[in-house]
Amino acid sequence: MAERPFLSIVVPAYNEEAVIGRFIDSVRSEVDRPGLTWETIIVDDGSADQTARVVREAAGDDDRIRLVEAPHRGKGAAVRQGFLVARGQWILMADADLSMPWDNLSRFLDAAAQRDAPQIVIGSREAPGAERTGEAWSRRVSGRVFNALVRLFAVPGIADSQCGYKMLSADAVAALAPHLTLDGFAFDVELLYLARLAGFPIREVGITCHCRQDSRVRVRAGIASVLDVLRVRMKARPTSYSGRQGRPASASSPDRRRGSSYTP
């Protein structure tokens, strides 16, 4: 078996033929660096285009590229599939459209390297140091309304629950992934909600975000996400995860040291 990589990059992809090759090239050129071993797991979410073929060809030339083919169920289901096969010490969720430039990766790695490192580091478009470009006013407003509902009903203190870039320790993934149930856009909320219940510290780091102009999120998906947030709170939950006591973690903020194409 190949040596365990330091970083697994999990990418949900649905009809991303136009961008997935560029994503893979960017990982090879910008993530690949001395001392950082990695693998990229691209989960094809039942694409109707040639996404899987592009990834398969790239994987044939580089065994660090892995393709997982799954029926179309949604971003949450695709990320969950990637979590279950990831081998890295840290697992990073990423979007195929490269909405976050790779020079932001150091912000995640720096947080993970600190003495009081959290188990979960989430990219934030609202934290200090964050920048966003190309975002439509309507999308900005709808995103803030959704986040207000998330903070009210599920995850207080998290300024940006829906950014597509989140990095989790292997221990956190092993403990949380088996309990994830949501297949749609609100899976991020369920992930963070369960992480709080399990006592995993969460930290937000500000990132640069280049918003995709052809976002596929529509009104119907937004309504479904709101309903899913309510379902997160209504579901019965286990009180422990892989031996961890189910104690709520304290709210995280960018200043507190404890603790996609799909993106709404």
Describe this entry's structure for a reader:
The strands form 3 sheets. Strands 3-2-1-4-7-5-8 form a 7-stranded mixed sheet, sandwiched between helices. Strands 6-9 form a two-stranded parallel sheet. 37% of the residues lie in helices and 19% in strands. It has 264 residues and is α/β, with parallel strands linked by helices. The model is unreliable at 250-264 (pLDDT under 50). It is globular and about 45 Å long. The longest helix is centred in the middle third of the chain and has 17 residues, at 137-153.
Distance between the termini: 38 Å
Total helical elements = 8
CA radius of gyration is: 17 Å
The string of secondary-structure elements, in order, is EHEHEHEHEEHEHHEEHEE
Q: How much of the polypeptide forms β-strand, as a percent range?
A: 15-25%
Strand order of the largest sheet: 3-2-1-4-7-5-8
Low-confidence stretches: 250-264
Q: What kind of sheet is the major sheet?
A: 7 strands, mixed
Coarse structural class? alpha/beta
The global form is globular
Oligomer: single chain
Could you provide a short overview of the structure?
The protein has eight helices and eleven strands. By secondary structure, it is an alpha/beta fold.
Considering the chains and any ligands shown, give keywords for the structure.
single chain, 264 residues, alpha/beta, two-stranded parallel sheet, 8 helices, 19% strand
Secondary-structure map:
Blueprint: E1 7-13, H1 17-31, E2 38-45, H2 51-61, E3 65-70, H3 75-85, E4 90-93, H4 105-113, E5 120-124, E6 131-133, H5 137-153, E7 166-169, H6 170-176, H7 187-198, E8 202-206, E9 208-210, H8 219-234, E10 240-241, E11 244-245
Helix pairs in contact: 1-2, 5-8
